[in-house]
Amino acid sequence: TANARGLSTARLLPQKQQKSSLRIASDTIQAFPRCSVSNFSKLRANKRFAYFDRTKYVFVLDSIGAGVLLFLRPRRFGKSLTLSMLEHFHGVQHRAQYGELFKDLDVDQDVKQNRVTPGQYLILKFNFAKVRRTRDLNEAAQGLANNIIQSLEEFYGDYYPYLGGSLDQLISKEINQGDAIYSLANLVDIVDHTLREVKNGGDKKHPLANVKGIYLLADEYDAFSNEYMDPHNSQPWAASAASSLVKGFWATVKEMV
Fold this sequence. Notes:
mainly alpha; two-stranded antiparallel sheet; 6 strands; 49% helix; globular; disordered N terminus; AAA-ATPase-like domain-containing protein; AAA-ATPase-like_dom
């Protein structure tokens, strides 16, 4: 049923939820949100929300061993929330919050059995649905470049305590505001260099001692291209700076794998 607050509610049957992936705090839940909640940490912190537990796929995805994984699911399926869940599991900055975020979820059993380990990556996130729409391909290219640069700056904001120097120093020194692809490649080099130094230093208590590398999450990976590609007239897109930027981005990512 629906109520005036824009939430959907339903009777919950305990005997049925035992075999379900639905996780419910039965003493505090009030409703199922109709609006999109795609931040895993906020969802888990709010006991009014139920959660369909997809964390068993952390081990499944990890065991595949592929360098690149592609999620293809219908709209409103929960792809963004799944990416947020992966971010909070794998991100080294979230390691201390593992218990409050993942206790009693499926992945917790995999962790206890040493099948998968939380907090072993630096998370680099992109969301290409956030690029401002425009009819001008040159403006579109600039919008995409700005989107990439912003994601790189957010990465440095999350990890500058581990990488050395202040946030302002890292951004001013390592990001070229006029070349998003160079700045992305530079970020990868900095992380590789830092992790090698940590490994060679032999300090097992260093916060990056068990970090394997960068875990890249690209939400709405095809949103930008789909906005501008015309199947009936591909030449304008193929000749544009926007197309070159997309190709350069994924070529750089391919080198990371």
